[in-house]
Amino acid sequence: MKISRKILLIGSLSVVIVLLAVMSGQWAKRNVQALETQQASKLSPIIMVPGSNASQNRFNQLVTELNQTSQEQHSLLRVLVHKDNSLSYSGAIRANDNEPIIVIGFQDNKDGFNNIQHQAGWFNHAMQALMVRYRFKNVKIVGHSNGGLISTYALEHTLKSRDLHIKKLMTIAAPYNLNDANSHGETAMLRSLVTYRTRIPRDLTVYSVAGSQNFNTDGLVPLYSVLAGRYVYQGQVRHFTELTVTGSQSEHSKLPQNSQIIQLIKNFIVDED
Fold first, then answer.
1. Please, which pLDDT band fits residue 31 given cuts at 50, 70 and 90?
2. How confident is the prediction for the chain on average, in pLDDT?
3. Long-range CB contacts for residues 70-75, cutoff 8 Å, separation at least 24
4. What distance in Å separates the CA atoms of residue 174 and residue 178, rounded to the nearest whole number?
5. Which of 28, 31, 111, 220 is 20 to 30 A removed from 56 (C-alpha atoms)?
6. Cα–Cα distance, 79 to 204 (Å, whole number)
7. Does position 10 have pLDDT exceeding 70, yes or no?
8. What is the DSSP letter of 222?
9. How much of the chain, in percent, has pLDDT values that exceed 70?
């Protein structure tokens, strides 16, 4: 009888120990998930989109120079979207880096409105994959040249997610009216962007930056074409600001390395807090 009681007692203790272990494991799992969710909620990447014929390495120098003057060092992840929707990654997001820079480039990076539409779809595909992979909830976007058009078209047509908040957008020398320098002209692309402007989030803050060598062009994109962005964003978003950069580095291809623009990104896009 005493042996049976001992066995019963040992059995009861074993059950209690198992239950405690299970409960402890569940608590630890919930705690880890809570910490991961908290970390994900703090993650606010800067998404950069290169222009036509530019690769996912387009912003390497910009990131290097930005890190030289920033309190926090931004890690760099590059994503290449292939024509078949597969993604290639290079670089990495450093642990505890709440504001990494993610560059999204395209295998098919040619010019033209049709390609911009395709690239906007690929951009959305990459964004959805990145959201699943890194679980961020908000981003800032910087687009150079056609990268600004891809970002704008994506905001209107493809980048639709209730789980993503786009805080700020900076377009750099984005040719909203393509290469048309006529202030009275309107390309099919500009008409489309203006037509669907009401789909752009109203709480967005937008900076449109132009380069100007002679107050008419940056050597490639007419100044008017960049300024035509006001017809897309002004009155639609919370804040819209136009900025013009001049000087020796104001030529179109040099703008991503332009020290003034890097300072603008630091002042208006980076969340150093």
1. very low
2. 87
3. 70/266, 70/270, 70/272, 71/272, 72/97, 72/99, 72/272, 73/97, 74/46, 74/99, 74/100, 74/101, 74/270, 75/100, 75/101
4. 8
5. 220
6. 25
7. no
8. B
9. 84
pLDDT for the residue numbered 38: 42
Length of the chain: 273
Count how many Cα atoms sit within 13 Å of the Cα of residue 143 in the half-sphere of its side chain: 30
pLDDT of residue 125: 96
**CB-count exposure of residue 99 (10 Å: 0-12, 13-18, 19+):** buried
Beta strands in the chain (DSSP E): 46-49, 76-81, 87-91, 101-106, 138-144, 165-172, 205-212, 239-246
* Distance of alpha carbon 272 from alpha carbon 44, whole angstroms: 11
Residue 54 tokens read as: 């530019």
Amino acid, res. 22:
V
Judged by phi (left if over 0) then psi (alpha if -120 to 50, else beta), residue 85 lies in left
**Which amino acid type is present at position 196?**
Y
Report field, pTM of the whole predicted structure over 0.90 = no
3-state secondary structure of 237: coil
Pairing of strands 87-91, 76-81: antiparallel
Question: What per-residue confidence (pLDDT) applies to 39?
Answer: 46
What does the pLDDT look like over 145-202, one tens digit per residue?
999 999 999 999 988 777 899 999 999 999 999 987 776 778 999 999 999 999 999 9
Side by side, which strands form the sheet with 76-81?
A: 87-91, 76-81, 101-106, 46-49, 138-144, 165-172, 205-212, 239-246
Cα–Cα distance, 244 to 237 (Å, whole number) = 20
Tokens of 138: 């908000």
Banded model confidence at residue 7, pLDDT cuts 50, 70, 90? low
